[in-house]
């Protein structure tokens, strides 16, 4: 794999890594709370370097620290004590679609309806048209999915 980059949504924390280990989806209750969702998508980041800022850390247990951006709150890392490498949140990478999970862990806490998510209906065409009109007016203040010397953007 080539060098992979990523960071938080506001751009205060950026990273790169040279290699990835196994990507996972963790359903444990601690990951649910840390990500504010039903699971935590993570991957082992080998050769991780913080290129802009560094995460603030919260000790979520006697054996784990979790890193996050102290400015925007983006969950970034899972750091077990005594391990050489940390796990980084899949969604924090600039190209998360290129890192598919290979395993589910913590399945004892998996939501009972998780396996049925793909069967849920989507919006009707009429509903989708309304949503697209709403999103067409949104201006994103999130950091772009790439490193840039022009961040934050200069005011016009």
- Under the CATH scheme, the architecture is Beta Complex
Largest sheet: 7 strands, mixed
State the CATH class.
Answer: Mainly Beta
Tally of domains:
1
Question: In order across it, which strands form the biggest sheet?
Answer: 6-7-8-9-4-3-10
Order of H and E elements: EEEHEEEEEEEH
**Beta-strand content estimate:** 25-35%
* First-to-last CA distance: 38 Å
Enter the CATH topology name: Metal Binding Protein, Guanine Nucleotide Exchange Factor, Chain A
Structural class: mainly beta
Distinct helical segment count: 2
- Number of strand segments: 10
Shape: globular
Mean pLDDT: 92
Helix content: 10-25%
Report on the structure:
The radius of gyration is 17 Å and the shape is globular. Strand 6 and strand 7 form a beta hairpin. The protein has a 7-stranded mixed beta sheet. It has a 3-stranded antiparallel beta sheet with strand order 1-2-5, with no helix packed on it. Helices cover 12% and strands 31% of the residues. The N and C termini lie far apart (38 Å). The chain has 2 helices and 10 strands. It has 156 residues and is mainly beta. The chain has one domain: Beta Complex (Metal Binding Protein, Guanine Nucleotide Exchange Factor, Chain A), CATH 2.170.150.70.
